[in-house]
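Can anyone check this?
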Amino acid sequence: MRKAAFILLAILVLVSPTAAQTGGIIGPDTYPENINPLTGLPVDDPAILNQRPVIVKVVNAPATARPQWGLPQADIVWEYLLAGGITRFAAIYLSEAPERVGPIRSLRLPDFELARMYRGLMVTSGMSTGVYEVLREDSLMMSRLISGESPAPALYRDLQLDRPWEYTLFGDVDELRALATDLGRDVEPEPLYGMAFQVQPPANGAAIASAEVEYARAHITWVYDGARGVWRRFHNEELHTDAISEEQLVADNVVILEEEHTIQPYVYEDYWGYSNFAYSVNFIGSGRVVLLRDGQMFEGEWRRSSREEPLTFYDLDGNVLPFKPGRTYFNLVPRWLEGYQLVFRLHEPPVATVTTPSVYFYWGPTTGYSRGGWGYESDELPVIGRNNGGTWVQLLVEDRVLWTTTDVVNLSVDVMSLPLARPTTEY
């Protein structure tokens, strides 16, 4: 009887839905044995979770480097700024191991923190001389790094591609793990934690149709697909697709994370020229975060107390901010004056009514920007954002996103209830 009862209990455990599937939160500190701590999704074989994630640096610019291979299989993808205003990816693999990921490109200073936060192996094509000097002083990163152009099949070049040579290096994730062992890298897994997951979205989200992240030379748009429950990615207003399936890249969650970027004058990025220095990002302390999930945006805060800890996420009331179970893209943006701009296409935007006989609208929240249009008294325009001080508001003027001061319009809502569309350093 006891044996039968034990078997029945085991069956119930195996088929019972996870807390995330039944509406409860799982994480951010511990997870059921078969739940991937990077996605909140169950895996068929929990043994695959008992290994270090593999983080692969993937090129994203220029346009001739797209489309890429292997991004849809990543549990998490980070996108961050490089010198010159373009962006690059760091794709993190734990639950899947594609045979072709790339094109693989070089190590950058933010990767030193990603390797720590995700306890991962780092795969790159190489690095600039300045980054190498930083690497030499970092024993942890040295113990996790795989860098170079060989050996195959872990790393290989596909010279049949009609692309420049520097965009022909690829990796096989399982083979990269084996290579790490052969090279004596530190492959001993460590506990992963930091993200919480829940099927049901939190309360008090703002419904949006899309969100745009404007870097200096990269315009990223995420459009919500309600039928599939995912965010579809566009790069510079063009479909961003996967090279294998030719399908558009999608994410269950998109996180816009703001942190200080420090220019390091001793670390220049060779191919951009001596005047283009590298950025370091510490991810220590706390900062602004926006979570996009289920067609809504949620403002919150990221926290990280030390280099040995992962990122954690909270809403503005200090409660754990849960992700939707699934794959996540992070857009890292710099906490600089004019460092970035966000555009949230609200489903039901409030209204700004012009209160002066005439007014100019600007391309940014100061009169130092060029004029982009004008309005007249009693004009009513959708208002979708603000600067940090609430002294300027972001408007939709026909097909343009423009700005004006709050003293020339009457708003249908409190200005501070609008989404923050600029860096927190701007007032």
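Reply from J.R.: I decoded it. The CA atoms of residues 362 and 387 lie 13 Å apart.
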